[in-house]
Design a protein that fits this description.
Radius of gyration: 47 Å
Low-confidence stretches: none
Order of helices and strands: HHHEEEEEHHEEEEEHEEEEEE
Structural class: alpha+beta
Strand order of the largest sheet: 1-10-15-12-11-16
Helix content: 40-55%
Strand content: 25-35%
Distance between the termini: 75 Å
Length: about 350
């Protein structure tokens, strides 16, 4: 009985727990929330980060300038190529026949020019002969006119001299006109030669472009071309991913995109090459985006939602990797992550 009374007295005199101990877990939770909010907003004021980024390069579409049957394909899918490496060949036979035909046309027209030039040279001799005959007829006319005036020649003789002079004048004029006609014919023939040579040059050019080569260094991508396929002029048949135009496109929120300037140093993490940070710099910031989704155009569309959460509008920031640019992990369309100190 004494012990129970003593314990009862102690329990009635023990101090009540403080409000801090009573709500300890609540205070810890509030502290974690405050620290998290401060870290989030404070960190974003110092470090800019986005995982909405991807690697990009240019896909060069190789299209023949002439139509025809594909005779050979000199590459395989995913092959690395250098500038000038053969890609494919359009059957050159029809184009070679066209070149041969144009060469024969040029030779024929040049022979025609030579003939007309020789004819025009003969016209000069005809003009000289007509001029000499005209001078003689003029002298005979002058003599007949004098003798007729002195009554030493009959009227018939004077009329004959007059007719001979008129005929000589006509022959001289005809020779001159024929010479002018032949000169114009030579000019027309030379013009036809020039046209034929232009057609020959075009035929030779068409023959030369039947051989398709790589315009840029890179990688053949998604090759489906096979010998025997028909290639249309202007329609791409082979694609090459340019190996010199690698860049990273990162979508940053409006305030971050507005604060970054070209040349700003950044770090890039490639998902295709994890655990490696690559140094880079900002090449530029896109100044416009499309507000609504539609066919691809001059304005890129950046979706403002991710996992059902609507985000603030983001703008594209183009980043170039600093040399030496790594070859491993660079795949156009691969995901990337970008961060930098603001």
């Amino acid at each position: 009985m004494t012990t129970t009374a003593t314990e009862t007295a102690r329990s009635t005199t023990a101090p009540a727990p403080s409000i801090w101990r009573r709500y300890l877990r609540l205070w810890i939770a509030l502290g974690v929330i405050v620290i998290g909010v401060a870290a989030y907003f404070g960190g974003s004021a110092v470090i800019a980060y986005t995982d909405d980024a991807y690697v990009l390069s240019d896909l060069v579409r190789i299209a023949p300038q002439v139509a025809g049957i594909v005779r050979t394909v000199s590459v395989v899918d995913n092959q690395k190529v250098a500038v000038g490496d053969p890609i494919a060949t359009i059957d050159p036979e029809p184009f070679q026949l066209e070149v041969d035909l144009r060469q024969r046309q040029v030779a024929s027209l040049e022979a025609m020019v030579a003939i007309k030039t020789q004819t025009q040279a003969n016209d000069a001799a005809s003009i000289d002969a007509a001029a000499a005959a005209l001078r003689l007829a003029q002298q005979q006319y002058n003599r007949a006119k004098t003798l007729s005036g002195d009554q030493f020649a009959s009227q018939e003789q004077f009329d004959q001299a007059t007719d001979q002079l008129s005929a000589a004048q006509d022959r001289f004029a005809l020779a001159q006109n024929q010479s002018q006609i032949d000169l114009r014919a030579i000019d027309e023939a030379k013009a036809q030669v020039d046209v034929a040579k232009a057609q020959l040059a075009l035929a030779q050019y068409n023959l030369s472009v039947t051989r398709l080569t790589a315009p840029v260094p890179g990688y053949v991508n998604n090759l489906t071309l096979r010998p025997g396929a028909y290639a249309n002029a202007g329609e791409a048949i082979v694609g090459v991913v340019d190996g010199t135009q690698w860049r990273v496109v990162a979508n940053f929120k409006e305030d971050i995109a507005a604060s970054v300037a070209p040349g700003h140093h950044v770090w890039v993490w490639l998902d295709s090459d994890p655990w490696h940070f690559h140094a880079g710099h900002v090449q530029g910031v896109g100044r416009a985006i499309a507000r609504s989704e539609g066919p691809a155009g001059l304005l890129p569309y950046v979706a403002p939602t991710t996992d059902w959460i609507r985000l603030r509008r983001r703008f594209q920031v183009t980043i170039l990797l600093d040399p030496p640019v790594p070859e491993q992990g660079l795949f156009s369309g691969a995901d990337a992550r970008v961060f930098f100190f603001r």
